[in-house]
Amino acid sequence: MASGAGSSMLYSFLLFTVILSLQEMYRSKLASTELFTILGGFISSLLFLVLLTLIGNYQETCGMKTGWGAVIIAEAVALIAAGTVHRVCITTCFLFSAGLLYEVNKLSGVILSKSDSKTRRY
C-alpha cells in the first residue's frame, strides 16, 4: 500500500467516523426544524462523499477500477445514516449527493484531461 493512498484512506475513515458521530449526537437538533432537516441531509451527503473517497482509494490501492458499485454502496450508507435523523433527510441527502457526484465527476474529468495532455506533450 502506498503511503499516500494509505494516509488518504485513514483520513477518509476518520472524517467519516467524526461526521457520523456528530450527526448522531445532534440527531434531535437536526430533526427539530425544516432548515436543520435540510442541513441533516447535506451532512449525510458529506458522508456519501467521504465514503466514496474511502472506497475509491481502497479499490485503487487494490488495483481495481472504481465504478458504480462504490457509488451505490456509499449512497446506501449515507441514506441509512440520513434516515436515522429524519425521513426528509433521506430525500435531501439523495439530492445533495447527486449534485456532489456530478461535481466530482466533472472535476475528475478535468483532472484526467490535464494529465492526458501532459503525457501527450512529452
TrEMBL record:
It is found in: Membrane. It is a multi-pass membrane protein. Keywords: Membrane, Transmembrane, Transmembrane helix. InterPro entries: KRTCAP2 (IPR018614). The keyword Transmembrane applies. GO terms for cellular component: membrane. The chain crosses the membrane at residues 6-23, 35-56, 76-102. Belongs to the KRTCAP2 family. This is Dolichyl-diphosphooligosaccharide--protein glycosyltransferase subunit KCP2. It comes from Salix dunnii.
